[in-house]
Amino acid sequence: STSHQVMSMFAEATRRAAQARFKQKSVDSEGQEIEYDVREDEEQNVKLAESIDLLLAAGYFRARIKGLTPFDKIVGGMTWCIQTCAFDVDVDLLFQENSTIGQKISLTEKIVAVLPRMKCPHRLEPHQIQGLDFIHIYPVIQWLVKRAIETREEMGDYIRAYSESQFTKEHITPRDEEFNIRKGKSIESIKNVSTTYKPQRKYRKPPSTKQADEEIQIHSTLLEYGRRYGIGRSIMEKSDINEDKRKSISGVLGGGTDDDDTSKQQEEEEKRIKALMKGMASTGGDEVLSSAAVGSIVGIQSDEILQFVSEYEMKRAGLESSQPTDKVMGAQSHFRLVSTLQKQIAALEKRTQETQEKHDELYLHYSGVQKQLIEVEEYSEKIANEMNKLNAMESDENREVLQQLRALVSMNENLKKQEQQFKAHCKEEKSRLEEMITELKNGVDTEESERVKALRIHYEADKEKLQKIKALLARKNREIAHLQRKIDEVPSRAELTQYQRRFIELYTQVSAMLTETRQYYTLYNTLEDQRVYMEKEVGILTSIHEKFDLAMSSDRNKDLFLKQVGQILDGIKQDRDQLVQRCQDERKDRDSLNITYLELIEKQRAYYKTVKDFQEECRKNELLLAKLKAKNG
């Protein structure tokens, strides 16, 4: 087609201009070639090289291809950087090499529109990209490369994890195969070990231990599974508070040295373990139930039974201590008395601890209330001082203002009270609605349930209607988008202007190529004519030279030779006269064309002047119309 031919001619002219970048040739009026150098901007070339180096460092290796134009390298690198930054833009940055003029213009405009959304600190215009203004393009490429590298560092771990997960979906490594083989064996061995060494419950502790302290509960639980450990030092540390009382009691009852104390402690620990074991009930069927197990069967009165047992032990210990016994009976009564006293001390300590905790809690509440009271008193005092100052400032001039201020303050207080009442009302309404919801869930009110069913049916109908409306809206949106795409296909005024500019440049290059071709044809024809005339001249001189000796042999031959030479000269003069006449005709045509050209230039000047005057008159007309509208308005 015609447009395809024009585009191909434009591409060929661009290629030739690139080949003749450093050395261009022209032809003068005589057809001789003139050579001259064209100077380029070195700074532009330096910025182009630096931009390509930056893109290569960032990872855009297509910039190494020598066959690509600088426009394709730079615009492709910018598009790649924007896509690498993973910035959410509603623009299709589709880059294609060797694009048409319209595609290049559209792509550059899209890139320039995206840069401000990415918060690029450098400004860039589409004509700067199309004109390859590398001085202004280089800072933008530098910023884009920096953003692309930062984004790639941030997304590197995520992309690696994603790629590994995608790889493991379809492939497997030898290490994974070995792990899967060992996995089943390891799981089986772990299950066997956990089953073999699973803790087995041998005893069951009585319910009375739930009221004991934490460490006794721990040891009771350990004894349930057959673990026998000595009672730690925490109980001993807890009993350090009443250590003096214990020493005095042991001294009165015949206590001994430190060795006796350690042995007594060990004996006491053994007794505690035995006491705990007495309350344990065996989980086997052949064992006899203990007294504690019987007490747990009794159930509710187990605490009372334990209290009676402890009182019985105390009374029996008192009776045994009052009667004279031997050494063994005295030691037994001593240990019973000590254990009884320790139980009483533990109970008192527990009660003291509970009282202390309650006291601390009440003290904290008291201190908080005290702080609030102090703050309220300070605030009240501050308000009283401000009121006194306000009353002191009151005069006839500002009395109305102060009254308004008091009214506003009272209004504020009323609003606060109303807010509190509204909150309380909302809470009551919330509780009432929650009760109604529970009643509705339980199906108490049939009328309300029927009303809810009717509302639900109405809701479903409205929901279906909404879905239909959404579907209709989506269809309309698709139609609007289709029409919008059709509208976008129509070029705008700026695009038409750029097209016009590009076609003018294309026409200039084509006319220059046509002029150059015509000059080459003229030069060729001139040289061809010179060759023909020189060949004729050489032929004439050769024939004269060959016939000269024969013509000089006799007078008749001489006369004949002279007549032939005269005829040749007459023919040459006729050819020369024809050429002179032809040259004069060509000069006349040139002069007439030059006169016509000058007349056209004069008409063009007059046209431009007329257009300028017409625009000025239109501007004046618009100003007058605006003034007239302003006066009428």
Give the percentage of residues in beta strands. Answer: under 5%
Instruction: Report the strand count.
Output: 4
Radius of gyration: 57 Å
What are the segments in which pLDDT stays under 50 over at least 5 consecutive residues? 1-11, 13-39, 231-242, 245-257, 284-301, 322-328
Structural class: mainly alpha
State the helical fraction: over 70%
Q: Give the strand order, joined by hyphens, for the main sheet.
A: 1-2
Q: Helical segment tally? A: 18
Mean pLDDT level = 76
Largest sheet: 2 strands, antiparallel
Order of helices and strands: HEEHHHHHHEHHHHEHHHHHHH
CA-to-CA gap between the ends?
A: 57 Å
How would you summarize what this structure contains?
The protein is 79% helix and 2% strand. By secondary structure, it is mostly helical. A hairpin with a 5-residue loop joins strand 1 (23-27) and strand 2 (33-37).
Give an overview of the whole structure:
Strands 1-2 form a two-stranded antiparallel sheet. Strands 3-4 form a two-stranded antiparallel ribbon. It has 633 residues and is mostly helical. It has helices at 2-19, 42-58, 70-84, 101-117, 126-130, 134-170, 174-196, 214-224, 233-238, 243-252, 258-278, 291-298, 302-322, 327-393, 399-442, 446-489, 493-551, 555-632; strands spanning 23-27, 33-37, 203-204, 281-282.
Key phrases:
disordered N terminus, mainly alpha, 633 residues
Protein topology:
Elements: H1 2-19, E1 23-27, E2 33-37, H2 42-58, H3 70-84, H4 101-117, H5 126-130, H6 134-170, H7 174-196, E3 203-204, H8 214-224, H9 233-238, H10 243-252, H11 258-278, E4 281-282, H12 291-298, H13 302-322, H14 327-393, H15 399-442, H16 446-489, H17 493-551, H18 555-632
Antiparallel strand pairs: 1-2, 3-4
